[in-house]
Amino acid sequence: MSSEKVETGATKATGAPHGVPVLGASGRRIVYDENGKPCRSCNTLLDFKMVAGKQKASDVTSKTAGAATLASIAAPAQQEPKDCPPDVEQLGRSSWTLLHSIAATYPETPSQEQQSDLKSFVNIFSRIYPCWFCAGDFREYIKREEPKVKTQEEFGKWLCDAHNEVNVKLGKPKFDCNLWKQRWKDGWEDGSCD
Ligand SMILES: Cc1cc2nc3c(=O)[nH]c(=O)nc-3n(C[C@H](O)[C@H](O)[C@H](O)COP(=O)(O)OP(=O)(O)OC[C@H]3O[C@@H](n4cnc5c(N)ncnc54)[C@H](O)[C@@H]3O)c2cc1C
Q: How many CB atoms are located within 10 Å of the residue 36 CB?
């Protein structure tokens, strides 16, 4: 499938039907699947609802006049509904939690089999991740930066860099990778996680 790169890091299926919104209320490009339907796990909930006619872009803009960008203010205005399929952000948060938690429990000196299992997992993950354009970019990253699985520390840092690549793409600050273990394994030194 051919695709078009856009500023949010999203790519859009070129088969998007005529007469449907191209940009969402968040300012991001709407991602459609191969059947021309908006992809829930590829769009923010706000944009998904806007395309479904359940949220008007004007509802957001009128409440937020004067803000720098729609994208930066739209997300907090949106309440996450309970027990519904995830949007791109919920899916991402949960997936990063799983991935970093795997790093946190990966052995410090893994066997050959454990190293090979982890490599396979990361590769398969990059092929089946439900947000397909996210998955495509992740596969490109893995091609450029091969997963490092020789030790827990090595994998934790590799994953942190991979996550930072997405953060930068989305205009978010980079996370300090020296802190990955406090964030995902030991808890913060100030004791706030105790
Ligand atoms: C493989 C993958 C690819 C993705 N690609 C896209 C994409 O192309 N477009 C898109 O819109 N969304 C993408 N996402 C989702 C996106 O990364 C975020 O998960 C989503 O935007 C929600 O962000 P958040 O601000 O809640 O925090 P998240 O980025 O989900 O981070 C969760 C928590 O992890 C910690 N953290 C942040 N950065 C790091 C780091 N570098 N290392 C360790 N811990 C960290 C912080 O404590 C943060 O609160 C992707 C997710 C995954 C798993």
A: 12
* Residue of the CA atom closest to atom 3 of ligand 1: 134
CA of 157 to the centre of ligand 1 (A): 15
Distance 96 CA to ligand 1 centre (A): 6
The amino acid at residue 130 is P
3-class secondary structure, 5 = strand
Q: Is the domain of 65 the same as that of 99?
A: no
Tokens of 185: 């394994």
Average pLDDT of the segment spanning 112-119: 98
Q: Is 90 in the pocket of ligand 1 (CB under 6 A)?
A: no
Ligand 1 atom closest to residue 9's alpha carbon, by position in its atom list: 8
Per the domain annotation, does 50 fall within a domain?
Answer: yes
Pocket test for ligand 1, best of 8, 137, 166 (most atoms within 8 A of CB): 166
The distance of Cα 192 from the centroid of its chain, to the nearest Å, equals: 26
What are the DSSP calls for 119-154, one per residue? HHHHHHHHHH-SSHHHHHHHHHHHHHSPPP-SSHHH
Burial class (CB in 10 A: 0-12, 13-18, 19+), 58: exposed
- How many beta carbons lie within 10 A of that of residue 2, not counting itself? 7
| Residue 79 placed within a domain | no
* Domain region containing 155: 88-186
pTM score of the predicted model: 0.85
ipTM of this predicted complex?
Answer: 0.99
